[in-house]
Specification:
The structure holds two protein chains of two kinds. By secondary structure, chain A is α/β, with parallel strands linked by helices. Chain A has nine helices and eight strands. The longest helix of chain A is centred in the last third of the chain and has 17 residues, at about 210-225. The chains are: A alpha/beta, B mainly alpha.
């Protein structure tokens, strides 16, 4: 990974975490996407770690390795406490393969729930990246994002999904040379496409327009490079 | 950064929403020169207003050629997902069938990029051709149905509905041995004898009959002498011709649907 701070966050998420703090952190970070999301603390949560207003989804968090077992436990606990099946979102500090995600979706369906979105380790790392408070509170990391980073500054949710139907654009970006411009309507997926490539070490986003900071980052990288 | 990028095989600096950050682009270019680095700049920009923001300003700013600009269309899959979420389960099922049929019949113009590049133009022409032929046949059968209705109502009255009439032997025999034996133009003459029809409607039905015959019996109707596939001088295979065709068909339709109102009964 070209971005050291991002790498530090993902490594820290892989370690054992304080479950309560992770729940609070997840609820706080995901509030951007679910503005009415509030955390539920303590042992009376009936399987829910956060709720949203009205018929919105509730939040289930888990830091344990056996994500499907923890999810099942939470949903059964929710049902046994009188809850009716609805929709939910899941946040976890674990990495999840496509198969594991499918299994989680299937298990939710089997229990009558609709799992709207899964936020695995990479998704949580991206949301933590620009949140120094939670980096410190949850992961005990005091670093700051580099001016050159794999995580763009965007108000849109960073959805951790594989790219579909962008083969020609990816080919063009990977194979063409020189300065290039990618244009498109808002929401067409420009940032998302480049972010996916950045995560594969193709490039880095500039997230600060301070000339001094940029010059510093570029020069520092050059010095680091000269020692390699 | 140069060495780092070389080592990581990544040598691109991405400037997101660069239409707001032209100074940053300049600064990056300047830095690249100063430290002799070898990174490329990839900028994203709204399609935007040419005069104020957007790609044209950006192109001028970082002085790149049109070949270095790529426009990202809205993802079709995303549009389809957005559409699906607003439809009922049954509507989604039908939509799925339509997509499947469009693929089976080679009418899936939205998948044109999946076709061989050399055959795309031909395939698009064929799709357009099929679409127009289908539309002409549908309107031909619908007009035939309107004429049938007029004739049946004249001979059998309006008191009983068509499902009720179909239960009578008299009505069945009339349909099997009279209506089925008549061509649309013969039916048209009969209807005109029953009630007056506007001349324009009569001419439209006659030309529809000729057009349908041309399309149904010839793969290259443009070579026909009598049934040229045109509408008021415009090819039926053009958007303008198609539009004129539809306007005519709606006039015919109104004549039969609103026959008891001023719209339908015009002086012959």
């Amino acid at each position: 990974m070209a971005d050291q701070f991002y790498e530090e966050i993902t490594n820290a998420l892989a370690r054992e975490l304080d479950k309560d703090r992770f729940e609070l952190c997840a609820a706080s970070l995901l509030r951007k996407e679910f503005p009415t999301l509030v955390p539920i603390r303590g042992g009376t949560d009936s399987g829910m770690d956060g709720v949203t207003a009205g018929d919105g989804p509730f939040l289930v968090c888990t830091t344990g390795r056996d994500v499907i077992r923890n999810l099942t436990g939470s949903l059964k606990s929710y049902l046994s406490s009188g809850g009716t099946p609805g929709s939910l979102i899941l946040a976890t500090s674990q990495e999840l393969s496509q198969t594991r995600r499918r299994n989680l979706q299937k298990r939710s369906r089997d229990l009558g729930f609709s799992l709207l979105q899964i936020y695995p380790r990479a998704a949580m790392a991206e949301r933590l990246y620009h949140e120094p408070r939670w980096c410190k509170d949850l992961l005990d990391l005091t670093g700051r994002p580099s001016v050159l980073t794999v995580v763009p500054l965007t108000d849109r949710p960073l959805i951790d999904q594989s790219l579909v139907g962008r083969d020609e654009e990816i080919k063009w970006l990977l194979e063409s040379q020189g300065d290039r411009v990618l244009t498109g309507q808002p929401g067409s997926g420009k940032t998302s496409l480049l972010r996916q490539l950045a995560l594969r070490d193709w490039g880095l986003f500039v997230i600060d327009d301070d000339p001094a900071a940029i010059a510093n980052a570029v020069s520092q990288a050059t010095i680091q490079g000269s020692h390699c | 950064m140069r060495t780092r990028f070389r080592k990581q095989q990544s040598k691109v600096v991405i400037v997101d929403d660069a239409h707001f950050k032209t100074e940053l682009l300049t600064r990056l270019k300047q830095l690249r020169r100063e430290i002799n680095a070898e990174f490329d700049i990839v900028a994203t920009s709204w399609t935007g207003d040419k005069a104020v923001y957007g790609r044209w300003r950006l192109i001028l700013w970082i002085k790149i050629t049109q070949a270095s600009v790529r426009s990202l269309a809205l993802n079709r899959l995303r549009l389809l997902c957005r559409m699906s979420s607003k439809l009922t389960a049954k509507q989604n099922l039908i939509l799925g069938e339509i997509r499947k049929l469009a693929e089976v019949f080679g009418m899936d113009y939205e998948n044109i990029l999946d076709y061989d590049p050399d055959s795309r133009t031909t395939m698009l022409e064929v799709m357009k051709n099929k679409m127009i032929r289908g539309q002409v046949i549908i309107w031909y059968t619908l007009v035939d149905e309107y004429l049938n209705m007029e004739i049946c109502q004249y001979f059998f009255g309006k008191k009983r509905s068509f499902p009720q009439l179909w239960k009578t032997k008299r009505f069945q025999l009339f349909n099997y041995h009279v209506l089925e034996e008549l061509y649309p133009l013969q039916k048209l003459r009969l209807v005109r004898a029953i009630r007056p029809l506007p001349k324009t409607v009569v001419r439209t039905i006659e030309s529809l009959n000729a057009l349908r015959n041309g399309l149904a019996h010839s793969f290259f109707p443009e070579n026909l002498k009598k049934s040229k596939p045109t509408r008021k001088g415009k090819s039926i295979f053009s958007a303008e011709g198609g539009q004129l065709f539809m306007e005519d068909m709606h006039d015919v339709s109104n004549c039969f649907i609103f026959k008891d109102s001023d719209l339908g009964i015009a002086s012959p």
